[in-house]
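pinging the channel bc i need a second pair of eyes. not urgent but kinda urgent?? the chain im working w is below, pasted from the shared doc
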Amino acid sequence: MLVALVAALLPLLAATALNAPAAAAGEPARDAARAGAVPAAALTEVTNFGTNPSNLRMYLYVPESVTPKPAIVVAVHWCTGSGPDMYNGTEYDTLADRYGFIVLYPSVTRGSKCFDVSSPQALRRGGGSDPVGIKSMIDWTTRTYGADTGRIFATGISSGAMMTNVLLGDYPDVFAAGAAFSGVPFGCFATTDGSEWNSACSGGSVTRTPKEWGDLARGAYPGYTGARPRMQIWHGTQDDVLRYPNFGEQIKQWTDVQGVSQTPTTTDTPQSGWTRTRYGGAGDRAPVEAVSLQGVGHNLYAQGMASRVLTFFGLDGSGPAPQPGACRVTASVNAWSTGLTATVTLTNTGTTAVDGWKLGFTLPAGQTVTGGWGATYAPSSGSVTATNAAYNGTIAPGASVSIGYQASHGGNSAAPAAFTLNGTACAAG
């Protein structure tokens, strides 16, 4: 089966080899991390980026016009590929030039050049193997560029699509959304004998109920109760490497994780031969979006699809930006070497009283709440919800309530960048 996967990917590899720009002929610049930020508009290897149990390599593309607090797109390659191959074979770098986000390309060094999506270590948060190394890459990039921890995304092709599923299961507090091209559900490829390949899953014979699939993904991070990443799923009906039934099983999994119906909200045909279904919402940023390509095999990725990924991620400026509700939040931080104290003031700018509130925000990577006042905080990291205390649950029009928390940090001591009140975005400042 590994041989079949290699054969299926040879056309894409050949295309990337022929179309590689001159700058990719040699090794990208090494050790740029020693000086901090990497050179702009060039694929650059970063070393010594943090914990890396499976010896992955890290490549980074930062555009000339990188935005303040940029988003990060983690672009994950296929079996037999590499980070530079993913760079050459997709257009995320040129889209980054247009929209100002950063692209991170993890690269496998093991012989198969396949990502580990099967071992027990890979299928739990912080368990080891490739997901831990990729998380270290994200943390390095976030620290170096002050990236927006609420806008970190993953996308991948084949083995990279399977890793996209794994990353969203292991780190739901890190990723806002993912897009998987020709993949399988989280946990489908699980093995305990050291094998990288699961023939039952690749053959499409592993089926579970939505809840069973959802429990597998939730089990990677037990106790997590925060927001879950949105998912976009792509699959060809004639895929003979990772068979088409895996498309439906992914839909089952991520609709259950999102808590939405398996019945599509909308069905349309954005392009001839494509059937797109959306679940839990009708717009470009539905909780789950699935695109089935009639008569297409395993190598379904084509130029133009990355733009549709960015629309789903919300990185292309399409559609109206979320409008703030009748609330305003200010936040300030007093930090020291390994800890901080944050003070948050919530103001009701509406004309009616708020009776009971939940204030949502995402902590920067590396921060963990260790205590607080004025509210209860859960979970302690990632996407946090502060719930009112008994004495401050009502906020009159024009009135404010101040709360705060202590947190440890690993170097990023910034305040959260955005807040929601009972699910509605608040103005900042």
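so The CA atoms of residues 310 and 316 lie 6 Å apart. and The mean pLDDT is 89. — does that match what u expected or am i reading it wrong
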